[in-house]
Design a protein that fits this description.
Length: 182
């Protein structure tokens, strides 16, 4: 992330996204929720790192028989499983409310990715930005294409180990003369 870019926190309503993205829905229907959750996490870990976002994927506890917990996946991404009696919506809304009350420098942004209309209205009321599941999918795909293009067009690095192999021929010849004492 560049020093002039704003600090962004992205909250993702995990099961909402899984239910809307067709490839994740297919994984969920074929293999179950855990593989669909893993696929979403793998997709967003790369997107978050590239964008420099702090991303929190939130999953409802209704699909897990355990207490709420937080897992750190990478420097840019964590997963939060809510407490058994808490929904992802309430967790996200509560965090947006807390962030609104905190004094943040200009440029700090909170984005919530969900297609739940009631949650959209609530988080916007707390000063967060809203992104639909479809918009997040388009951004993730565009980022993937951008990364691949950059990798293809970046100059190839020399596979040789030594600095001297990266020098132009005249400098290499002069270096060889110096080694021989000429």
């Amino acid at each position: 992330m560049s020093p002039t870019s704003p600090f962004v926190t992205l909250f993702v309503d995990g099961y909402n996204i899984i239910g809307i993205w067709s490839h994740l829905r297919q994984i969920r229907n074929r293999d179950g929720l855990e593989p669909a959750r893993r696929a979403l996490v793998e997709t967003l870990v790369n997107y978050s790192a590239y964008k420099g976002f702090e991303t929190c994927i939130v999953f409802d506890a209704q699909y897990r028989n355990s207490r709420g917990c937080r897992e750190t996946v990478s420097r840019n991404l964590c997963i939060h499983y809510t407490d058994f009696d808490q929904t992802a919506d309430t967790f996200i809304e509560k965090n947006c409310a807390v962030r609104q009350r905190q004094a943040h420098p200009l440029g700090y942004r909170t984005i919530v990715a969900t297609s739940d209309r009631a949650q959209q209205l609530t988080v916007v009321g707390y000063g967060a930005e809203w992104m639909s599941a479809e918009q997040l999918d388009r951004e993730v795909r565009a980022t993937t294409v951008n990364v691949r293009q950059r990798q293809r067009t970046s100059p190839k690095r020399s596979s040789r180990r030594f600095l001297s192999s990266r020098l132009d021929p005249v400098a290499q010849q002069r270096l060889a003369q110096l080694r021989r004492g000429i």
